[in-house]
Design a protein that fits this description.
Layout: H1 2-6, H2 9-16, E1 26-31, E2 34-39, H3 56-60, H4 64-83
Antiparallel strand pairs: 1-2
The structure holds iron/sulfur cluster (SF4) (2 copies).
Length: 84
Protein backbone atom coordinates (compact mmCIF):
# COMPACT_ATOMS: atom_id res chain seq x y z
CA UNK A 1 0.00 0.00 0.00
CA UNK A 2 1.64 3.29 -1.08
CA UNK A 3 0.73 5.24 2.10
CA UNK A 4 2.35 2.64 4.32
CA UNK A 5 5.38 2.42 2.05
CA UNK A 6 5.83 6.20 2.20
CA UNK A 7 5.00 6.52 5.87
CA UNK A 8 7.78 8.01 8.02
CA UNK A 9 9.31 5.51 10.45
CA UNK A 10 8.37 7.63 13.47
CA UNK A 11 4.69 7.52 12.48
CA UNK A 12 4.83 3.73 12.34
CA UNK A 13 6.39 3.69 15.80
CA UNK A 14 3.76 6.05 17.12
CA UNK A 15 0.64 4.69 15.44
CA UNK A 16 0.62 1.16 14.14
CA UNK A 17 3.72 -0.81 15.04
CA UNK A 18 5.04 0.20 18.48
CA UNK A 19 4.39 -3.34 19.78
CA UNK A 20 2.83 -6.60 18.69
CA UNK A 21 -0.95 -6.14 19.05
CA UNK A 22 -1.55 -9.53 20.66
CA UNK A 23 1.49 -10.23 22.82
CA UNK A 24 2.74 -6.66 23.29
CA UNK A 25 6.21 -7.92 22.43
CA UNK A 26 8.84 -5.35 21.43
CA UNK A 27 12.42 -5.35 20.26
CA UNK A 28 15.10 -2.70 19.88
CA UNK A 29 15.83 -1.40 16.41
CA UNK A 30 18.56 0.87 15.13
CA UNK A 31 16.99 3.59 12.96
CA UNK A 32 18.95 6.59 11.66
CA UNK A 33 21.48 6.28 14.45
CA UNK A 34 18.82 5.96 17.15
CA UNK A 35 17.76 2.92 19.12
CA UNK A 36 13.96 2.67 19.17
CA UNK A 37 11.46 0.13 20.50
CA UNK A 38 9.06 -1.48 18.07
CA UNK A 39 6.99 -4.57 17.36
CA UNK A 40 9.13 -7.69 17.12
CA UNK A 41 8.16 -8.04 13.45
CA UNK A 42 8.99 -4.53 12.27
CA UNK A 43 12.17 -4.53 10.21
CA UNK A 44 14.76 -1.76 10.11
CA UNK A 45 13.51 -0.86 6.61
CA UNK A 46 10.08 -0.09 8.13
CA UNK A 47 8.37 -3.16 6.71
CA UNK A 48 6.48 -5.88 8.52
CA UNK A 49 8.30 -9.23 8.38
CA UNK A 50 4.99 -11.13 8.52
CA UNK A 51 2.92 -8.73 6.41
CA UNK A 52 0.86 -11.44 4.65
CA UNK A 53 0.15 -13.22 7.94
CA UNK A 54 -0.09 -10.16 10.20
CA UNK A 55 -2.76 -10.26 12.97
CA UNK A 56 -6.31 -9.07 12.34
CA UNK A 57 -5.71 -6.00 14.53
CA UNK A 58 -2.95 -4.92 12.14
CA UNK A 59 -5.08 -5.62 9.07
CA UNK A 60 -8.02 -3.64 10.46
CA UNK A 61 -5.98 -0.68 11.71
CA UNK A 62 -6.79 2.53 9.85
CA UNK A 63 -4.82 5.65 10.68
CA UNK A 64 -5.67 9.22 9.61
CA UNK A 65 -3.29 8.94 6.67
CA UNK A 66 -5.10 5.88 5.28
CA UNK A 67 -8.50 7.31 6.15
CA UNK A 68 -7.68 10.47 4.17
CA UNK A 69 -6.63 8.34 1.22
CA UNK A 70 -9.85 6.29 1.39
CA UNK A 71 -11.93 9.48 1.50
CA UNK A 72 -10.11 10.88 -1.52
CA UNK A 73 -10.68 7.65 -3.45
CA UNK A 74 -14.38 7.62 -2.51
CA UNK A 75 -14.83 11.24 -3.63
CA UNK A 76 -12.98 10.49 -6.85
CA UNK A 77 -15.28 7.52 -7.56
CA UNK A 78 -18.39 9.59 -6.75
CA UNK A 79 -17.26 12.33 -9.14
CA UNK A 80 -16.60 9.81 -11.92
CA UNK A 81 -20.06 8.31 -11.35
CA UNK A 82 -21.71 11.75 -11.50
CA UNK A 83 -19.92 12.59 -14.74
CA UNK A 84 -20.98 9.38 -16.51
S1 LIG B 1 -1.07 2.20 8.91
FE1 LIG B 1 -0.79 4.41 8.90
S2 LIG B 1 0.80 4.81 10.45
FE2 LIG B 1 0.89 2.64 9.90
S3 LIG B 1 2.42 2.49 8.28
FE3 LIG B 1 0.41 2.68 7.30
S4 LIG B 1 0.18 4.86 6.92
FE4 LIG B 1 1.80 4.63 8.46
S1 LIG C 1 2.82 -7.54 13.18
FE1 LIG C 1 3.56 -6.26 11.50
S2 LIG C 1 1.91 -4.82 11.04
FE2 LIG C 1 1.51 -5.73 13.05
S3 LIG C 1 2.39 -4.32 14.56
FE3 LIG C 1 3.93 -5.85 14.08
S4 LIG C 1 5.16 -5.00 12.42
FE4 LIG C 1 3.26 -3.83 12.55
Amino acid sequence: MPSCDDCPFDEKLLLCCPRHPLSGAQKSLSVDGRIVRACIYLNEDGRCAIYNERPKGCRDFVCDRLLGEEKSLLLYRLNIKRQS
